[in-house]
Every structure is written in C-alpha cells, then in structure tokens.
Amino acid sequence: EIVMTQSPATLSVSPGERATLSCRASQSVTNYLAWYQQKPGQAPRLLIYDASNRATGIPARFSGSGSGTDFTLTISSLQSEDFALYYCQHYNKWPNTFGQGTKLEIK
Amino acid sequence: EVQLVQSGAEVKKPGESLKISCRGSGYSFTKYWIAWVRQMPGKGLEWMGIIYPGDSDTRYSPSFQGQVTITADKSINTAYLQWGGLKTSDTAMYYCARLGSGSYSLLYYFDSWGQGTLVTVSS
Question: How near does any CA of chain B get to the CA of A12, in Å?
Fold first, then answer.
C-alpha cells in the first residue's frame, strides 16, 4: 500500500501568518489527494480534493498544490479557528491511506 | 443535506460483543460506499473497512480483517460495525464516512463524516 508521510508533526504559527503543511506519497498518486481538517472533539471534514480544489464552503485562505508524490496545504492568513489537526489522504489506488497528521498550533 | 448519524457512546467490558451503527440520509444510500475509520486516543485516522450497501460488497484493511465485521441494511439506510469479543485496545472513537464517488469506484475521497461513536472497553 502507498505510505503517506506528513511533515512536520507539529507546526507552531502565529495568527495572521501563513502556514505550509507537507504531505509526501511513497509513490505517485497523480493528483488524487485530499486534505481533511479535524478540530478537537469533532469529526474530520473535507477541505481539499484532487490536490487543489476546495470543498464546498471552505474559505479561500485554504489552498492545495502539488502532484505526483509531493503536496502542500497552505493557509494564507491563520485564523483562530484554523488551529487543528490536518490529514492528507490519497485515493489513487486502493487502499486510500491517510497520512499520520500535522497538528497546527498557536505560536 | 447529506447526513451520517451514528449511534451513541458505549462502555463495555473485555470479551463482550458490540454493534454500532451509522444511518445515512439525504442521498441514495445504496450508491455510495461507507467506510469505518478508527481513531485511537491522541492518534491519527485508520480506515478499517468499507461496504457498498447496494450489494454488500465489503473490503477490509489487513489490520482489521477478522477482527471486526461490517454489514449494511439498505432497507433502513444503515451500516454497522461489530465486534465479537472486545479488547481494551479497541477503546477508540469510530467514525463512519461516505466515499463521495456515487458509483462503484473506490478511488475517491470521503465527502461526509458521521459525528463519531466513542467505544470504551474497560474491566
């Protein structure tokens, strides 16, 4: 199965600044990559699909990029509600594995 | 509106059996795969298995094969996750999630999630 590796494990950023989260696949997943956000005590929710498309209702400050094996989730100006866990997941080949997550915390 | 509503929290003893549920509404339940995803305390997301309610085709992660059973009752738009004999290591939050393809393809993302069912196994 394809292994998804996210970095860093924890990212400390100040509100208003930009956050960049990385996700690397052990083999090419073309652009079949999703990002999910999980806030404490809540279920995950879809942020980005097909590497760069925002899901319905997701603010424009969230953007995704990349293809092949290297992907990035960028949050352009962090709001207080953005501090959460973020997971990537590929869906290029079954099983659709998750990364281990990046915790975005307030600096 | 698509909704997945899961059954409530459970507290069980080791060795007991358990069946939790996930009811879908607002869409054609038989046409979308439903997955079960485990999240152990303080840990990440692990998919356990997935079922296509239209024909009950089921696939399991190798890590969970033989440990759990996934079923669905399309007459009441509900998917289930069950254990025959719980262990303390089964203590976790369990989510159901819909694969958004609307077809038989497994190559898609999860576009809707249940609220989670907390299972606590303790003697």
Answer: 18
